[in-house]
Amino acid sequence: MSFPSPRAGSGKRLDFNHHGVWAIYRFEIARALRTLVQTLVTPAITTSLYFVVFGAAIGSRLDSLGGVGYGAFIVPGLMMLAIFSESMSNASFGIFFPKFTGTIYEVLSAPISYVEIVIAYVGAAATKSIVLGLTILATASLFVPVHILHPGWMIAFLLVNAVTFSLFGFILGLWATGWEQLQLIPMLVVTPLTFLGGAFYSISMLPPAWQTVSLFNPIVYLISGFRWSFYGTADVRVGLSLAFTLGFFAACLGVVALIFKTGYRLKN
């Protein structure tokens, strides 16, 4: 299998550069290991606080949702909330920092293809977010009984969402021209949509008008499909959730390909 070289004007084709991909991937993982406490311990503490506040204070006042206790019900939402934010932040920072320091040109001039660059950066970001998601799952299981009804689908949704939002973060990192822009979309768009996307409640609890409004929130479909893999209950049909998830993944791939093809914010 071969890919076109990223060097402008080069008509050569290179074999898959395992060493180049591994070097970038290892560098990005090492950056996370240097802040291991912040990466893993802090989310575990935050998850515990969620269960103290939401599980004990609020959950005790709510009936089960779809036959699932409230504490267990919010576990998939907590995992998705962390995966969305962690994937975006790691991938966006990973590609933005070389742009900011000017070292991105060393990567672009190296004998490594665009596909390999994306695999390395996105793969590292997705790996870190998946580890974080599993850490939250392990922490949650200490507080509530968590049963995964469809483990294969759970892993599939976990992987696709982690990779998709890593691609989305990669796009943000290429698009951003400053640190403020790097945080703009996650803070003003993605995080509010996640909190309003059924992470901590079922949209069936909302008035009919707001249920209709919620169906225009794309995060609802991502969280609903993931929750279905745990408990077999969902706010929207699982087929629709899967189609939306794969569609978002394909759209992100298309945008990344277009960016590298045009050199948008890379060549100047």
The total beta strand count reads 2
What percentage of amino acids are in beta strands?
under 5%
C-alpha geometry: globular
The number of helices is: 11
Give the distance, in angstroms, between the N- and C-terminal Cα atoms: 30 Å
Q: Widest sheet: strand order?
A: 1-2
| Number of individual domains | 1
Biggest β-sheet description:
2 strands, antiparallel
| Low-pLDDT residue spans | 1-5, 7-13
Overall residue-averaged pLDDT value = 84
Query: Which radius of gyration do the C-alpha atoms yield?
Result: 20 Å
**Residue share in helix:** over 70%
Structural class: mainly alpha
Order of helices and strands: EEHHHHHHHHHHH
Topology overview:
Blueprint (H helix, E strand, L loop, with lengths): L1 E3 L8 E3 L2 H16 L2 H23 L11 H4 L1 H27 L2 H6 L4 H27 L10 H25 L3 H17 L12 H7 L3 H14 L6 H25 L6
Antiparallel strand pairs: 1-2
Helix pairs in contact: 1-6, 2-6, 4-6, 4-7, 4-8, 4-10, 6-7, 7-10, 7-11, 10-11
Please explain how this structure is put together.
- The structure is a single chain.
- With 268 residues, the protein is an all-alpha fold.
- The protein has one domain.
- Helices cover 71% and strands 2% of the residues.
- The chain is built from 11 helices and 2 strands, in the order ββααααααααααα.
- It has helices spanning 18-33, 36-58, 70-73, 75-101, 104-109, 114-140, 151-175, 179-195, 208-214, 218-231, 238-262, and strands at residues 2-4, 13-15.
- The protein has a two-stranded antiparallel ribbon.
- The longest helix is centred in the first third of the chain and has 27 residues, at 75-101.
